[in-house]
Write a structure and sequence with these properties.
By secondary structure, this protein is an all-beta fold. It has a single domain, classed as N-terminal domain of TfIIb (Single Sheet), CATH 2.20.25. It has no helices and seven strands. It has a four-stranded antiparallel beta sheet, with no helix packed on it.
Length: 88
């Protein structure tokens, strides 16, 4: 991460349970988190504000989340399914 030192410190909260997976977008503008209930939270680091919810993966035992290489999509998994979400 080239600009990590210049990024602000933030606290990103999800609605339930514990966060199981986090990821930072390739351009380092967004951070996304997936909790074990399946909530997906996305936060714009530069604007310092949350983005609209993209959906709920569903309960996951081993939550995983990742941005696509171009940052336009999120991929979630953890319950024998893989889901692809558009990033707002």
């Amino acid at each position: 991460m080239t600009g990590a030192a210049s990024l602000p410190s933030v606290v990103l909260s999800v609605n339930h349970d514990c966060v199981g997976g986090i990821t930072i977008s390739p351009d380092e503008r967004l951070i996304a988190a997936l909790d074990t209930v399946g909530n997906i939270a996305i936060y714009d680091l530069r604007a310092q504000s949350p983005l609209p919810a993209v959906g709920n993966h569903g309960p996951t035992v081993f939550p995983n989340i990742a941005f696509s290489p171009d940052g336009s999509r999120l991929v979630t998994s953890g319950d024998r399914t893989i889901k692809i979400w558009g990033v707002p």
